[in-house]
Amino acid sequence: MLAPCLLRRAILTAPFVFVVALLVTEPVRADQEAGTAIPAESRPCVDCHAFEFMQRALQDLKKTAYNLDTRTETLLLQVEKRNLCDCIAANLLN
């Protein structure tokens, strides 16, 4: 017997609580600013950001490739120099 009474009370109380919550909260007016809004005309598009990001990534890859190429060339010259020195030393011993 107690369960139907509680159920009926809950069904009647829920809408009342909802209406009170709506009345207590302050409505948002149209003249209120919701943060700093940037007009769409002055915002760069997402594709522009992606393009700039890809350009920077490509520049970084070019720098890395150049550095690797330079390092490889330096290492090859060191190996050639070492082989040449070993060859000269071997010829002097014979």
TrEMBL record:
Primary location group: secreted
Entry keywords, A to Z: RNA-binding, Secreted, Signal
InterPro entries: NICOL (IPR028147)
Subcellular localization: Secreted
Domain of life: Eukaryota
Signal peptide: 1-30
One Gene Ontology term of the molecular function aspect: RNA binding
One GO location term (cellular component): extracellular region
One family name in Pfam for this protein: Neuropep_like
Family: Belongs to the NICOL family.
PANTHER family: NEUROPEPTIDE-LIKE PROTEIN C4ORF48
Protein name as catalogued: NELL2-interacting cell ontogeny regulator 1
Species of the source: Taeniopygia guttata
